[in-house]
Amino acid sequence: MLKALFTRAALLLPFITTSVVAEPLVWQAQDAHRQFIILGSIHAGDDGFYPLPTAFTSHWESADALVVEANILKPSSAQLNPTVATTAEMLTDIEKQSLAATAKLAGLSSSPLLSSPPWLAAISLQMKMAEQAGLSPDRGIDITLLKRAQASQLPILELESIEKQLRLMEQLDDHGKNLLMATVNEWDEMAGQLSCLIDAWQAGDQAQLDTLFDESQYDDDTDSALIVDRNHDWADKLIGDPTYQRGKFLIVVGAMHLLGEEGLHELLRQKGFSIKQLSQSKQASCS
Prior knowledge:
There is one protein chain. The protein has a domain at 8-77 and 138-165 and 188-277. Helix content is 46%, strand content 11%. It has 13 helices and six strands. It has a six-stranded mixed sheet with strand order 4-3-5-2-1-6, with helices on both faces. A hairpin with a 3-residue loop joins strand 1 (26-30) and strand 2 (34-41). Helix 6 (118-132) packs parallel to helix 9, helix 10 packs antiparallel against helix 11 and helix 12 crosses helix 13. The radius of gyration is 19 Å and the shape is globular.
């Protein structure tokens, strides 16, 4: 998965409007009493990601809240479970050799990866891949919008807590070994997918994003835990939680959560919401 942080002047950058031919996908989900404006994000970015689509930012002043996966600006006491198996304990000798080779490509020492849980080693490698592609967590969509909301005193709501995200990762089968070994074994392919993902995201190319989503899937259990189950939980929360019964909400979630038949907006459609694309799209240059 290529799935997954400023001065006040920098915070204004995503809200400077320009004329664009194409832009990241923005969806509107609406029923009689509420309106959700949904943007798919990439959690690490660069200056080329901005400005964000006016189809999203034009609703900022009239929004009741910004809704994110988890509010990473909020202090958290979440800690790793010290009893969870380490990567060194989960991998065979041959797999450790493969990990060491990939770590070298990433410019990382394999020692801290081996002492981490497999899922955390996978995330560390993927974040390093993003860094090698010129991306930084500090320019990610989520953190930029969170800081803007904080500066403008727009209420921030979260679909889940940091603690819940940590527990989710710790409960992956084999502590996320499949996630790690997919990253190790498909390093070069994933680097190409990341480049294409950025291109397709910026173009708002739904078809290409769907293709990348299909190509980047892991085993069914891992995909369900990381994407599908969370989409269902979020849809249920948006539909049933008293907080979301009336008003306009700006929602930003990882782009992978808006793909496939069980994407967040598709689940809302199935529950009776009218769904409309607000952004402009074009075909991405990658394939």
